[in-house]
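User: Hi! I have a protein structure encoded as tokens and I'd like to know what sequence might fold into it. I'm fairly new to this, so please keep things simple.
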């Protein structure tokens, strides 16, 4: 990326977002394919992987602390032509990630059982839920390294390479599922355990590809010299961006875990419906994530090159595109809901409840498309704490609180829980728009630039 490309940001963001979208879609399928394929093996096990994936998603959020920070800082240093800091950022990120991964793995084996008891995971899927989490969670560091290498490659603009790696990784996962879930030749059917093992094999394969592309496409070196003396300021910058954004996503996903506990009260049919609805919802907002990631890279680059007016314009353009695409996909999901749910199941209860949920999902996506874009872009412009505070307040007050009131107290079931989640997304999205329109982030950026200038004197 160069400054002339960044100034033509509409075309650039679209070109960057397409491979990111395909990559994210395939990464999502790595988890969702497990649920779909295990559903054909035994439908009740869909809930096992669905519950386990809630914890796995929390783990990925924690790991993303470093990958998000790495993306923003490398993009910013590329924009300011400060090439010497890029390798330092990456090496510091790898060290922090290794430490975090070890702690997460230990926590999984110690706390998984009590957490699943607290979540009220039904006894008929409890053992399989633990099995899936233990196998996937034991190799947390693989996912963390994959995300960090991919973040660096995206910052340099190599989205297509990351996308191709994701395609190959997903292919390995599907083939592994066919062999390990149902058994093949001398390999016995492994069910949920087979799905977990296949996921790990595919992620390891993806990491090998990332490492190869990283060494071939970038000039970043992994070396002790970038850590001696230890780069305290760089680590501080990584954590300054990563911790609030990680706390925001972590809080949100923890609230989703509590919501899943509510859903578990209603039995395996409602659990399965919730899992299928969540899979379909992913398709509605996944392009919003892609275009927000592309915009975050471009906005970070523009901030580094001091093009604040263009950065502001870029955010609003991204928001409009995100909402239009997300709502269009959700509308199609509602119109063809019976046919789409029919891919997963023929259960009439799931088909009927799923259609009601997708109707509410349309309103939820209005807020979610705003939140996805605004949070990423606020992080890029140095306003990292407010989105975290807002998410913590809104997700627990409206998503959890009103989800419980509507779903449990008023006996509206899964529909009531979804209404609470829609309230959270819409209220939070409206407030984040107001926050960005104040342009208070411009003062933060200018202050940061002055501080960096004085350090060079």
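Assistant: Happy to help. Inverse folding works backwards from shape to sequence: for each of the 457 positions I chose a residue that suits the local structure. Here it is:
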């Amino acid at each position: 990326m160069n400054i002339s490309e960044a100034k033509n940001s509409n075309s650039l963001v679209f070109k960057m977002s397409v491979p990111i979208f395909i990559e994210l879609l395939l990464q999502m399928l790595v988890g969702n394919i497990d649920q779909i394929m295990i559903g054909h093996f035994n439908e009740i096990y869909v809930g096992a992987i669905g519950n386990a994936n809630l914890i796995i998603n929390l783990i990925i959020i924690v790991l993303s602390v470093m990958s998000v920070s790495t993306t923003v800082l490398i993009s910013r240093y590329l924009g300011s032509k400060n090439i010497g800091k890029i390798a330092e950022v990456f090496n510091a990120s790898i060290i922090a990630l290794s430490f975090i991964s070890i702690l997460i793995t230990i926590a999984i084996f110690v706390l998984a059982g009590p957490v699943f008891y607290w979540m009220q995971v039904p006894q008929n899927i409890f053992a399989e839920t633990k099995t899936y989490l233990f196998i996937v969670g034991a190799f947390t560091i693989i996912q963390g390294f994959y995300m960090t290498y991919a973040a660096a490659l995206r910052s340099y603009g190599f989205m297509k390479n990351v996308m191709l790696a994701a395609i190959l990784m997903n292919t390995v996962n599907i083939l592994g599922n066919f062999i390990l879930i149902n058994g093949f030749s001398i390999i016995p059917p492994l069910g949920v355990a087979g799905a977990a093992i296949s996921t790990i094999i595919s992620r390891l394969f993806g990491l090998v590809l990332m490492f190869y592309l990283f060494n071939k496409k970038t000039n970043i070196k992994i070396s002790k010299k970038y850590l001696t003396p230890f780069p305290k300021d760089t680590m501080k910058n990584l954590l300054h961006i990563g911790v609030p954004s990680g706390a925001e996503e972590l809080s949100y996903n923890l609230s989703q875990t509590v919501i899943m506990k509510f859903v578990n009260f209603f039995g395996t049919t409602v659990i399965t419906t919730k899992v299928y609805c969540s899979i379909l919802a992913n398709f509605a907002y996944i392009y919003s994530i892609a275009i927000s990631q592309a915009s975050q890279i471009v906005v970070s680059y523009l901030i580094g090159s001091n093009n604040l007016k263009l950065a502001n314009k870029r955010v609003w353009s991204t928001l409009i595109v995100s909402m239009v695409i997300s709502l269009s996909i959700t509308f199609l999901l509602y119109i063809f809901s019976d046919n789409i749910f029919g891919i997963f199941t023929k259960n009439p209860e799931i088909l009927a409840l799923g259609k009601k949920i997708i109707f509410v999902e349309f309103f939820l996506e209005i807020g979610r498309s705003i939140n996805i874009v605004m949070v990423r872009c606020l992080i890029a412009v140095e306003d990292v704490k407010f989105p975290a505070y807002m998410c913590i307040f809104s997700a627990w007050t409206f998503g959890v609180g009103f989800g419980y009131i509507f779903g449990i107290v008023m006996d509206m079931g899964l529909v009531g829980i979804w209404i609470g989640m829609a309230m959270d997304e819409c209220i939070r999205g409206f407030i984040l728009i107001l926050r960005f329109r104040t342009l208070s982030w411009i003062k933060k950026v200018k202050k940061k630039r002055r501080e960096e200038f004085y350090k060079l004197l």
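A useful reference point when you look it over: Residues 285 and 326 are 5 Å apart (CA to CA). Feel free to ask if any position seems puzzling.
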